[in-house]
Write a structure and sequence with these properties.
Shape: elongated
Low-confidence stretches: none
Helix content: under 10%
Radius of gyration: 18 Å
Largest sheet: 8 strands, antiparallel
Number of helices: 1
Number of strands: 8
């Protein structure tokens, strides 16, 4: 697998229509993805002293965090509206290879900051709700 550019790792938000059309959340400088899983132990006396886990059990989730410079794009305005309303929305992560991860996410954190003589920046965190599909 070839190395991929971080600038091609994009966060996109849906427009609420059917079918969903995604718009890139502009101004992001960093994006991070974490796939989380919770293990279910099924260790017994027959395990020979080794821990055994049940495949496919437990809770899985995807967390996304990003930071960037505020540009006032339509996608940024939609993310802010979702954060204020506590609304689940369709989000997509796309990678340089063409791979995508798509699902419903909740904005769990949205912070704005800005220096007197500098740009307005923001950080955001998303948590998945339901399945996240990789294509």
């Amino acid at each position: 697998m070839a190395a991929e550019k971080g600038s091609a790792f994009l966060l996109k938000v849906g427009n609420g229509a059917t079918p969903v059309v995604y718009a890139t959340v502009a101004g992001l400088r960093t994006t991070q993805l974490s796939v989380n899983g919770e293990a279910v132990a099924i260790t017994s006396k027959d395990s020979g002293g080794w821990r055994e886990l049940l495949s496919g059990a437990g809770v899985r989730s995807v967390s996304v965090s990003a930071a960037g410079v505020f540009t006032g794009s339509t996608a940024e305005v939609r993310v802010k509206a979702n954060a204020l309303a506590g609304t689940l929305d369709d989000y997509r992560l796309s990678f340089e290879s063409g791979e995508t991860m798509t699902g419903k996410f909740l904005v769990t954190k949205l912070d704005y900051a800005g220096d007197f003589n500098g740009e307005r920046s923001y950080t955001l965190s998303l948590e998945s709700s339901g399945p996240v599909v990789s294509a």
